[in-house]
Amino acid sequence: MRMGRPAAVAAEVLAWQVALSALWLVLISTVEPLEVYVGLGCALVGAVAAVAARRAVGRR
Predict the structure, then answer these.
(1) For 36, phi and psi rounded to 5 degrees?
(2) CA proximity to 39, closest of 15, 19, 20
């Protein structure tokens, strides 16, 4: 399987980040700026991991 275009990968990471950030905001009790920044950072890490895992499984 060939690697996807950078734009497609970036769009997939962005979609995961939006979904994970929304989940984070739903689950926290108070919305303070520091918690939003931490949530966005964690969502970005999770999004990259999700895309990498999907691509690894897709190569089999």
Answers:
(1) -65, -45
(2) 20
